Amino acid sequence: QELLLILDAYWRDHPELHKVPLYYASGIAKRCMRIYQTYINMMNENIRDAHATGRNPWEFEFVRNLPSSAQFNDSQPMVVMASPGMLQQGLSRELFELWCSDRRNGLVMPGYSVVGTLANHLLSEPKEIQTSGGDWVAVNLTITYVSFSAHSDFTQTSEFISATRPRHVIHVHGGEEEMKRLARALAKQYSPKEVEFLTPQNCQPVQLRFPGEKIARVVGSLAEEEPSDGAPLEALLLLKENKYTLLAPADLHTATDLATTRLLQRPRFRFER
Fold first, then answer.
1. The one catalytic residue among 14, 18, 151, 168
2. pLDDT (tens digit, 9 = 90+) per residue, 20-77?
3. Phi then psi for 41, rounded to 5 degrees?
4. Active-site residue, 151 included
5. CA Rg value for the chain
6. Rounded to the nearest 5°, which phi and psi values hold at 48?
């Protein structure tokens, strides 16, 4: 949606592009558009200001929805934003296979691609690819990768970790090498005892340990004076019904139904002469 806003504004400011159709081909994007058009009050200041002047930015002037490839004529220059971004199937794969052999066309990938997908394979600029039907076609169009993501970048992620101070950080979304580089860069800012950074493989189980805090109620003579910081404390810790109680040994029989018992042990040793 943010890309659509940028493109629609760019087309508005450049009259020479007004004759170039601008489409978005995504069923999910079309359904989400109704939410964006309705909840203007939850958008950023620029969107709210534009709406206050009587213009809803989500009602595009140049961007149009493209339900299917059969409903448009590609004999003229155009821009089509299609999903899914991994180019594994769907309309984006269909259009790519239709256009990839023509040098006049171009592909712009504005986000990361998962290893094993066609989108990731295209980053290596192959000479040909195998279509969904099993045929081989030449790849002559230009391929450009642009880092444009709605996710936080390194600075924002680092600031978030610094503010929240989590014990564990697990990287689960993105390319494997990119996640490992991010984890290594973040790990340099903290000692392993402060924050642990994990980059598990898909379906790899992760076990975390959280040191829990125990709260005990202090009763009896032990509660008469506030203990000094760092001073040793001699007391009994009782657990009953998941509740902890801290008290002096002499108060055991008065504060509970328990009693103290004193054991006298006399060891005997035998020596051979």
1. 151
2. 999 888 777 777 777 887 888 888 888 888 888 887 778 888 988 886 667 677 888 9
3. -65, -15
4. yes
5. 33
6. -65, -40
